[in-house]
Specification:
With 263 residues, this protein is of the alpha/beta class. It is 48% helix and 14% strand. It is built from eleven helices and seven strands. The longest helix is centred in the middle third of the chain and has 24 residues, at 112-135.
C-alpha cells in the first residue's frame, strides 16, 4: 500500500508551470511539486530571487523565466519559453494583474485591470490542452481568494479578477474533464506571506488572523499541500471544485468573535 501511494503521488516525468513563484504560495508549491519529481518552470518578475528559488529546488532540469506578465509582449515571450521548456502537464495560476485597492466609485477605469490575467490564461489553455489531451493527463489549479466569495473594501477589481479565473477554470473542467484533465480552484483565507507582512500593520495581521475557527493565519505551505495533492494522479476524480482553505473563515466566524467582544 505504501509503495502504491507514492507511485500515485509521484510527478516524475511531468513538467509544471508555476506562476508567481518567487514568494509565498507559489514558491512553496514549486518546492512541493519538485519534491514529487516534477520539472518546474518558475515565473515571476524578480530574476535574482527566481534563481535562488530554482537553485534550492529538489531534482533537476528546472528553469526560470523572469517577466512582468502585465505586458502582452512578456506574455508572448512566456509562451515561447514554455514551448522551449516543454508543454507542462501541471499549471499553477498564482498570479493576477496588480491593482491598487480602491473604492469602485473612485476607480480610474482601465479594462486592462480585468483582461490581462484572463488573456494569459486563455493563451495557456490553447497551447497546453492539445498536448494534455494526447497525454491523457493535465492538472490546472488556480489560486483564488476568499475575497471572491466575501468581498472586501477596495477589492472590487481584485474580486472581478478572481471570479474570472474561477469561471474559466470551471468551464475548462466541463470541457476537457473526459480527457483525464482536471481543473480546480483553491481559495485561501488569510495567509501570512511576505506580501501580507509588508502591506499590513501588526494590528491588522493580529485582527485578521483571529477571524476563523483556528484563530490564526495560515501558512503558504498549508496551501501548497493542497496544490501538491491536486496535481497528483491521486486526485484524478476531483474536478471543477473550489476548495476553501481558510480555517472556517467562510463560516463567518469573525462575526462570532465580534459579538463576543474579541474583535
Amino acid at each position: 500500500m505504501k509503495n502504491e501511494f507514492f507511485k500515485n503521488y509521484s510527478l516524475e516525468n511531468k513538467k509544471a508551470l508555476v506562476l508567481g513563484s518567487s514568494f509565498g504560495i507559489g514558491k512553496s508549491s514549486a518546492e512541493f511539486l519538485a519534491s514529487q519529481g516534477a520539472e518546474i518552470l518558475l515565473v515571476a518578475r524578480n530574476k535574482k530571487i527566481l534563481i535562488e528559488v530554482k537553485n534550492n529546488l529538489t531534482g533537476k532540469n528546472h528553469k526560470y523565466f523572469a517577466a512582468d506578465l502585465g505586458f502582452e509582449t512578456e506574455q508572448e515571450k512566456l509562451i515561447e519559453e514554455i514551448k522551449n521548456f516543454g508543454i507542462p502537464e501541471i499549471i499553477l495560476i498564482n498570479w493576477n494583474y496588480k491593482s491598487k485597492p480602491e473604492k469602485l466609485t473612485k476607480l480610474k477605469l482601465n479594462e486592462d485591470l480585468i483582461t490581462k490575467e484572463t488573456s494569459l490564461i486563455l493563451k495557456l489553455i490553447q497551447i497546453c490542452i492539445p498536448y494534455q489531451k494526447e497525454k491523457k493527463f493535465g492538472r490546472w489549479i488556480g489560486i483564488s481568494s476568499m475575497i471572491s466569495l466575501l468581498g472586501g473594501h477596495g477589492q472590487g477589481i481584485y474580486s472581478i479578477q478572481k471570479n474570472s479565473l474561477e469561471s474559466i477554470l470551471k468551464t475548462l473542467a466541463i470541457e476537457v474533464g473526459k480527457y483525464g484533465i482536471t481543473s480546480n480552484i483553491i481559495s485561501p483565507g488569510f495567509i501570512l506571506t511576505e506580501n501580507t507582512k509588508s502591506n499590513l500593520t501588526e494590528k491588522q495581521i493580529k485582527t485578521y488572523s483571529k477571524m476563523n475557527l483556528l484563530e490564526r493565519a495560515g501558512t503558504p505551505e498549508e496551501i501548497a499541500h493542497a496544490v501538491s495533492f491536486l496535481s497528483s494522479p491521486l486526485a484524478s476524480y476531483i474536478n471543477g471544485i473550489n476548495l476553501p482553505i481558510c480555517a472556517g473563515l467562510d463560516l463567518n466566524w469573525g462575526l462570532n468573535l465580534f459579538l463576543k467582544g474579541e474583535l
